[in-house]
Amino acid sequence: MPSLREPGQRVSPRARLMWLVGGLAEGGALLVAAVLTGWVWHWFDLPWWVVAALAVVVAGYVAVVPTWRYRVHRWEVTDSAVYTQTGWWTRERRVAPMSRIQTVDYAEGPVSRLFGLATVTVTTASAAGALEIVGLDRGRARALVDELTLKADTDPGDAT
Amino acid sequence: MSRLDTPEIDQSRQWQRLDPRMLLVHPVRELIRFLPAVVGVFLAGTASGNYVWHLVGVGVPIGLGLLRYVTTSFRITAGRIELRRGLLERHVLSTPVDRVRTVDLTASPIHRALGLATVRIGTGASSANEEDRLDLDGLPLDRARELRRELLRVAPPSSADAAPEPPERVVVVLDPTWVRFAPLTSTGLVIAAGTLGVASQAMNTFGGWERLDAGGLVHGAARLSWWTLAPALLVGLLVLVTLLSIGGYVVANWGFVLSHANGAWHLRRGLLTTRETSLDDERMAGVSLCEPLALRLAGGGRVSAIVTGLDRRQQGSALLVPPAPRPVLLRVARDVLGISGPVDAPLVGHGPRARRRRFTRALAPVAAAVLATSLLVLLADLPAWLLVVAAVGIPVALVLAADRAQGLGHALVDGHLVARSGSLNRHRHALATEDVIGWTFRSTWFQRRAALTSLAATTAGGQQAVTLLDVPEPAAVRLAAAAVPGLVDQFTA
Question: The pTM is what?
């Protein structure tokens, strides 16, 4: 066995749009803040090329990262384990045995709600071991929560 | 049935108060807590000539202390331990006895004078809120020890009862000569910084800076040459920090004893405030051998336990050996694990690519600094000796990188995952594989290009994970599959 394979399932394709909107909002806020403090209120001397460079970085991030993220983000649930892959520059693959799962959390953020998406977080007794599946279709996420709760329940032990 | 049904404990089914001697402790403590307000009230009272204020200033804290005693009670019933407190806002804390993971006994100097101890019951719930802590503040020492024994013995009732109680086995006792390691730890610096901070704050508050004859000092110092003044200051600072660190070591670790009895490890230490910690055998997931550079060069280090249910903030209570010589550390680590493999076994290195990564990561920032300095010297007319200062970083980085590369290693021996890394702060963690509750394979774009990955075994204790830095990917997958069979295997290609 040379290496781990990728998890089987992709997240919803709408997750790309969600990340795009999120990136635009954050980048836009950054640009607006720079322009307001530098040019409108004159708190400090802001050369035009700094703003231009910032805009290019934001544009590049918004153009590349959502798709990159979408390619990386994957998940898989078997009878005995949960396996997730997240990140873009830094890729993180996490495996947790079903018997060690403590809580299964379902969350809809303000942006993800716009796209009918949800995040499922699976925690173990370790503060370093939470598995997060971002950008799942709402219905799929609900079904996953039920499935995980059921499977984790059948395993005995106090999960530490 | 659990031990709590035996008659000797039966009396504790009723709500009971803490020790009445706490009536002496609480008022004193409240007085100290309200000290600034009390002083203020006293000054105001003296100024107005109305001495009723003095009574109020002393009476209110004392009254609060008495109320605290009257409103606090606890009981152990039906396998639960419950603590009730608060006057206006009633709190009832309740936890099942079989969730109890650690029981700490602490005794401040006031407690010790009265023969009392505070029992802190740890359940592994990670709540930062002080109100949510299950502290029985103030039981007679004997009663506290008995309670601790009862609470910790509930979990495995059968075997402990059958066998005659084994005598307490002492594993390590503090040797006063270990104090020589104290100046090599960072505690001295921390205490010195803290003391300086408090002192300058006090000077500020009482206007000491204005009264300090700064002009005279500067004048006096100016007569001395810079070359005599700087070394004198440096030596003075070194002596101060050394004394403080020795003081800190002695206050924290005086009378340190690690022993094993009744299925748990017991730690006792402290010069002024004594502290007794008990760590249940079943919660011991492994040990960490920590050797910060200065200690390592002097042949020392410390050992702490990885205890499930103790989070990062409580790490201090899992210290098994304070800074001590290496042979002692190894002996204790072997003893606590019950096997020698994880402590002594040679480790597998992480290969040339991991080694190269240590060097690039150490040299890149130094190279950037040298480049930036040369540009500034060339373009902005900065003095050229700055370049020499920056260049000194290069050999330092090389030595660090070589040491870090040489330290990297891992192994899977006797059911323990062993990982070693670091130079300034070298660790060798040994974690029992049954306490591994998940795996994280983390790799940046650079790491993926070099086919390396950082493998972390997550656990419910210690730093919450043991990380193997920059392992070749196939080795990482093989290791994870071998350590916890049937988990990672199903996801391999």
Answer: 0.80
